[in-house]
Design a protein that fits this description.
Distance between the termini of chain A: 47 Å
Oligomer: homotetramer
Structural class of chain A: alpha+beta
Helix content of chain A: 10-25%
InterPro entries (chains A, B, C, D): FmdA_AmdA (IPR004304), FormamaseFmdA (IPR054833)
Radius of gyration of chain A: 21 Å
CATH topology of the largest domain in chain A: Jelly Rolls
GO molecular function (chains A, B, C, D): hydrolase activity, acting on carbon-nitrogen (but not peptide) bonds, in linear amides
CATH class of the largest domain in chain A: Mainly Beta
Number of strands of chain A: 20
Largest sheet of chain A: 7 strands, mixed
Protein name (chains A, B, C, D): Formamidase
Chain lengths: ~400, ~400, ~400, ~400
């Protein structure tokens, strides 16, 4: 692979580098141009722009400045792409940067980010990961080692002005229902710490004020956090603007379905080798208004899983909810956390494992009123000992401690 | 395999057979007794007790009497099982009955059952399936053929009186929030068409009035509709009453994750070869209050999937919802239905395919506020032609029609 | 599945049943007729015609009459099949007969059958197997349990008179090089115990004298013993005679690659549900003179293997042979047998395990003169304990004894 | 990953670099030292020391100097390793060198190297490969693209003086049976072009004269060409000398089982990230005299194969051979080559595909005298079109030409 189309400088902040941005807007200028059929490499900074360190304190996670996220590489302009086309993107290869080969996982504090189970786990925690070839291992999570499914947490095309306006309108309406909620219901545009590639001046100010935050997935892809967008995948993206303007970032060495700790994958900087092509008029031909993809051929292969079930009954109140898959998955996650606590892990460590290991989260039943049934598939061979029920748990597989914040 | 421990007579209704029941209650008398270590066969009627026919009219689906469901075989008393134990159940083999080898799938009418997408698909439809060894094929869904993942939609232990009371209380509270809703929010106990094995007399009347309906999954297992509880799986069930009292039914030749048509699997009668064992005191040892399982080793192996994404924005109103996985999966399902309509299928046929084929429904991202991201994995080799995006869809893979109700 | 097209009576010998035969010859009369597109069931006796019993003595294996083998069901005439066509056979389902659900594995005595390692294992041994749904377990091989890959050891079309003459000529020429060898180099035609379906009289005598033995695989398929011809496979057979005349038998519940004990699979009676079709003129269109197949989708899935290597150096003499894959696989098998002996198994038991469990035998390197490198993949999860090298072997996984002959 | 423990200079020949060698001998001095538990990177030159170019002429393959091969990196001394131990080597990651990311495959000329099918394919041919992330594609083999299973063709520990003497003695005895054969029966020691790391002087001359050639696999591992020794594999090597002295090379981006073109893999330079450990006294504890390994978790996953069968009848003479797996695999390979010729490939191109694509070669039956049955599994999704038999082959999937020698 030749010189990257866009490189990153890990020693300088993103806003000093023209190939990076952290908002979605059609006017962010392309950082590079390619043609259909091209193969090229992009480099990405980690999503926090280097705010988190490889150390044993969770202070950086607790105090992270989330107005900075996510640092994306791009946009890449694809010659000939027009609104209504499908942009075909092959993820030919993905991996960490040789010069920065480590990762981190955080539980965000309730007051600064939160996460799926923030009411149960309100305090910041961190685990740092060593990469041993295709495997990851953390000194903060002993007894666990697994092969990664490297993927970009975030990849998408630029929205049109109209689509952007729709996003901003509907998310503002949601926030308006409970504007003081902590954590917030949605992250609305903010100029603070906006990075917009080479854009400068008055246009910068306008775009920073309008640009959508990168937190959620939307109709263009975005922060889907789909762990199976890994090596060899082919994605079909709707094209909303001339040139498609593809951006990506938030590289994950591994992640469990749901990314339930929020900063939940093994976060890292990284590279991607891409191939792009076009299906002219593809959105209409196939009636597509959201991305579609084909997974790649080399995901890790597991034989043995332990599967936890969850239903939509709130464990805090005993209240029955109506076919609520979010709650059902919460219950499956909590069941798995409680279970792992039998084997020597703290519940925070168990959460960090489920956020990062290649677990599968399934919507198994969603019609059996009033309960949804969600299931969590935990591959058992990631542990150094046997966790399947037998005569009683072995309490010494885990141990140690996640990184804590200073008190 | 020797004579079944419990056989069914397909020519007679369930209430005339002592080994069957259709409510959950600790006082339903055991239909048979086994010991830990035993291997035995159970036979099951289809969940509707034979109300649906192998024909080209959906009248039977439209008019089905849902007070009859689900017809379960059991309870089986396991010697030595006591509350607090884990009952270990191996599904050694599963399959259709040689004497009744066909299946059906229905879309329930909005006024009689409904389903996950009942607002979009309010009318009854049906597809009938021929089993060709391990494969299923339907004259109502041409161009589709796939290997089944046979499983019991419903399997569980009996609740204790206390647990039953909890269920009835919490579900009644939910119904009370909108008692006239169609479809109903939950199915509360009803004596109508209650079948309770050999129970008779005043105790029958009391149990029929108290017995929980079998529709939802709960803390004992029940109607989980987990397609991966297939051949070779091992399940660990909490034991709530002496003898554990295991029951099962609702056999599926195949089902997609979610069972999104409600009567959405390929429904059939069938058999199961079981092995049972006990982990004494296992609930406390492992801190379990819901079932846990290990999938079996012979699920079909697919190389190629097409994956559809959904986010929690309501497609009817454009409204942004907060991390709603149920809605996100709805969007993924609708995207897949729209997509399949490019290939010659009606949208009802597409729904029937997604309810029955071995699709996977995943909770991919559930922390990226305000959107959940759910994904639907459709194995592409189940179709007779290529459905991956290329220069344009081949509109002739499908064709024909689902079975309609008479007008 | 309706009534079998051809049934077997397990209580009577094959020669009393018109649908069975044990030689290959174009003049064996069809036992049934089907049309392209038909789906039908065949039943098969075990390959020895019931000579082996479910007991703890290997006398029956030691004394087996091999002139009786293999008992095949058929031939089935396919309407419209002509020489030069390809017969497409789908193995829709396969399994044991409910009324005879057990299996056996034998090590043949050197003087009566022999086998791949007969110089090392010259005495008869036997293991009997219980089927527990999809799993097999033997009281003679404790500590082992695995899912079967059910397949017909033997399936093929009838040879033309010319092809039959070629077989007999070339095999006689081989035997002539060492006519007194024990075991024999090849089994030449013999009228003793010939079973030829409904054939009688002078034609019987001629066909019995000419008919090829069923022992080896040949250009029509035959005794390929390919373990992956399992559920859902599609086979393309050359057609050499009008009607194709398909026969099959030698049902195996499971077998390791190589079937290294000769009577090495888990042998049983069984059934097969078949679908047949034709590609007219397919042999010329595709240039085929031997069968081709597509494996099915539901073979067991293993994550962990232990792999043994063998090279073509004779372990008895230290002699270097030239790229001899047969010898290299012998060395890999012996390495695995020696290894398993560390865990409490006798070497005869280890051989019985490798003959029956779903091991894979690979030709890894075949150009690196003078050594071939063959590898044996042993799935480790079939054992009740861990057999991967660590600080030292656990000598108590196995135990017990294979069935011995009376002395 | 930090600086490699041993780097290679691609611009200089191996004999000018102290970390490389091309013979096996216990006295080749260690190029580096590690301790049990260490993780480190090695770099490897391609096996020919750069003799083959990325161009459209096969002259370099035809004229290759084979006294130079194989260029190995090492030996690496492992502190504490003693004869009788097992050296545990984890292949944590493997890949091409970023600065040399391409590959080649050759058919060697009969007079200079030959190969498995050299009597059928006596002339030199070449294909050059582009790496597109995890995929490989060759301009000389259009219509084919597949994910690689990167592995070292060659990895092993140093032999003891005694073991080396055994090798030289037994291989000389084989050559003596036909000393003038072309190609040779075995490659005996030769000082010509011997490269021995830092060794110099009289010791160099003696070791060069005694050192075993690296062509075959032997009791220490060596040139096993096992394609499944890929990412994440763990190998247990016998230790024959103090320090174990591990060497490796002959990196393959991909290879089919058998490596049937001899220079048959996709040959390249590359890197390996290794972890080493020791099992003290492991050879005796486990009775091991050859390597053992566990495959890794990320091999490509295929759903569809087309399987070709071969038996041990010589296609040139019609002669029946006795259970000859080498011949049976030859027949399976030739059947596959003939078959691919229906789709627009020359037979040389078909051979190049089978040597490089992730085909599996299986010993299916090896007891059915007089035939062995070997099978070749060809994954069908590596082709741009459908190669499964239907109404007739599509002759336009392939095309173009392998690189030819100048005439």
């Amino acid at each position: 692979m030749a010189k990257p189309l866009i490189s990153v400088d890990l020693s300088r902040p993103a806003h000093e580098q023209d190939g990076l941005h952290n908002r979605w807007h059609p006017e962010i200028p392309p950082a590079a141009t390619v043609r259909p059929g091209d193969i090229f490499r992009l480099e990405m900074k980690d999503w926090t722009d280097g705010q988190i360190g490889d150390n044993d304190s969770a202070d950086d996670v607790r105090d992270v400045d989330l107005s900075v996220v996510h640092i994306l590489t791009g946009p890449v302009h694809v010659d000939g792409a027009e609104p209504g086309d499908l942009l075909v993107v092959d993820l030919l290869d993905l991996g960490p940067l040789d010069r920065d080969a480590w990762g981190f996982t955080g539980i965000f504090a309730r007051e600064n980010g939160g996460g799926f189970l923030t009411d149960v786990f309100p305090e910041a925690r961190k685990a740092c990961w060593d990469f041993e070839g295709i495997f990851a291992r953390s000194r903060h999570l002993p007894g666990v080692r697994f092969p990664g499914i490297v993927h970009p947490g975030l990849i998408g095309t630029a929205p049109s002005a109209e689509l952007l306006a729709t996003w901003n309108r509907r998310e503002a309406a949601l926030v308006a229902t409970d504007p003081d909620r902590v954590p917030t219901l949605a992250n609305l545009p903010t100029a603070t710490n906006a990075t917009l590639g080479a854009l400068r001046g008055a246009q910068f100010d306008r775009v920073a004020a309008e640009g959508a935050r990168t937190v959620p997935p939307r109709e263009h892809g975005g922060n889907c956090d789909i762990k199976n967008l890994s090596r060899g995948s082919r994605i079909f993206f709707p094209v909303y603007v001339d040139g498609a303007r593809l951006s990506m970032g938030d590289m994950h060495f591994s992640q469990g379905d749901g990314e339930i700790t929020f900063c939940g994958a093994i976060e890292m900087s990284g590279f991607a080798d891409l191939h792009v092509d076009l299906i002219k008029g593809g959105m209409a031909k196939y009636g597509l208004t959201s991305p579609l993809f084909k997974p790649g051929p080399v995901e890790p292969r597991f034989e043995n899983y332990l599967v936890f079930e969850g239903i939509s009954v709130d464990e805090r109140t005993g209240e029955q909810r109506f076919v609520d898959a979010t709650l059902a998955y919460r219950r499956a996650c909590l069941a798995a956390i409680d279970y792992l606590a039998n084997f020597g892990y703290s519940r925070e460590q168990a959460l960090l494992i489920l956020g990062t290991a290649p677990i599968e989260g399934r919507i198994s039943g969603i019609v059996d009123v009033p309960n949804a049934c969600c299931t969590l598939y935990l591959p058992t061979s990631i542990f150094d000992g046997d966790i399947v029920p037998s005569s009683g748990p072995i309490p010494t597989i885990g141990g140690g401690s996640a990184a804590l914040p200073s008190s």
